[in-house]
Amino acid sequence: MKDNLDVECENVHSFIQDTLYVVNGKWKLVILSILVNKGTRRFGELSRESGISPRILSRELHELEMNQLISRRVCNTKPVTVEYSSTEYAETLKEVIGAMIRWGQNHRKKIKGQ
Amino acid sequence: MKDNLDVECENVHSFIQDTLYVVNGKWKLVILSILVNKGTRRFGELSRESGISPRILSRELHELEMNQLISRRVCNTKPVTVEYSSTEYAETLKEVIGAMIRWGQNHRKKIKGQ
DNA sequence: GTAACTACTTACCACTTTGTAACTGGTTAC
DNA sequence: GTAACCAGTTACAAAGTGGTAAGTAGTTAC
Questions:
Q1: What is the number of domains present in chain B?
Q2: A73 min Cα distance to partner chain B (Å)
Q3: B55: CATH
Q4: Quick one: closest CA in A to B94, which residue?
Q5: pLDDT score, position B10
Q6: Alpha-carbon span A66 to A18, nearest angstrom
Q7: How far is the CA of B84 from the C1' of D15 (A)?
Q8: Residue B14 forms part of a structural domain
Q9: Where is the HTH hxlR-type domain (chains A, B) (predicted)?
Q10: How far is A52 from chain B (nearest CA, A)?
């Protein structure tokens, strides 16, 4: 038996790899952090807000949708708009996203201080 | 003012990017999860345990050392061995690593169940 | 001296990921 | 018709990432 405050698994690193397989790349967690923390966005809004080019954004959104982390809704507006939202399942990533945001904030402070 | 249970920042995603900049790629979090959760390892041990080739492992360890997340110690053993350990600063990543491990475990369950 | 073990490093190649720019197709406003 | 806006897609190029195999260098065992 191990310390049950720690994760109890022989191959802890394989679970890390499973997670990375789903949220790999430079952008997926960035997109999810926006949709999860700030809510629904349209395609163009997401592109401008995150700085991701349409080509990449389109592909990342497809992959996130395939993994059931976001949902896509076409709206009958004047020019057709498309809304992307995080799903319930994406909410389970909140812990990961939150931890990374906090670490990033702290790390920036640390770097500035040096 | 925002809900202070959430992260309060306009550009939440920039902090995610800061974090990803440090722990980018396929392997850095895998290496850190081993060193943080399971303790000091030698070069060869790390390579075998994680399945990372010497070339990549060497480069990743350099980068982690530059970011002060791991420390390197040369030991005066029969053939010289080198020990890598996580630093105090790497402990601050425990929240991120733990969250990713738990999500990976849960995700694997979910996928299996489908 | 030769083989074996440690910890890397180098050369080379392949695949993946990302980016830029331009273009498609549909609708609305003038 | 022309311009403008939306949501993408396509073509192409550049950069990043990863892998294999072999080599270096130091020490030990035979």
A1: 1
A2: 23
A3: 1.10.10.10
A4: A99
A5: 64
A6: 16
A7: 30
A8: no
A9: 9-112
A10: 12
Task: List, chain by chain, residues whose CB lies under 7 Å from nucleic acid strand D.
Answer: A 42-45, 54-55, 58-59, 61-62, 72, 79-82; B 24-27, 52-56, 78-80
Burial code (b: 16+ CB inside 10 Å, e: under 16) for B47-86 equals: beebebeeeebeebbebbeebebbbeeeeeeeeeeebbeb
A98, part of any domain: yes
Residue B84 pLDDT more than 90?
Answer: yes
Q: 10 Å Cβ neighbour count for B96?
A: 24
Of A12, A30, A49, the CB nearest to B16: A30
Query: Is position B63 within any domain?
Result: yes
β-pair partners for A81:
A75
* pLDDT class of A10 with cuts at 50, 70, 90: low
Contacts of B55 (CB under 8 A, 6+ apart): none
Chain A positions touching B2 (Cβ under 8 A) are: none
Q: Is residue B6 part of a domain?
A: no
**Domain membership of residue A91 as a residue range:** 13-113
Whether residue B6 has pLDDT greater than 50: no
Query: Which residue, chain included where needed, has tokens 């980018």?
Result: B24
Question: In angstroms, what CA-CA distances link B76 with A27, A31, A71, A78?
Answer: 44, 48, 57, 74
Q: Which of residues 32-51 of A touch strand C (CB under 7 A)?
A: none
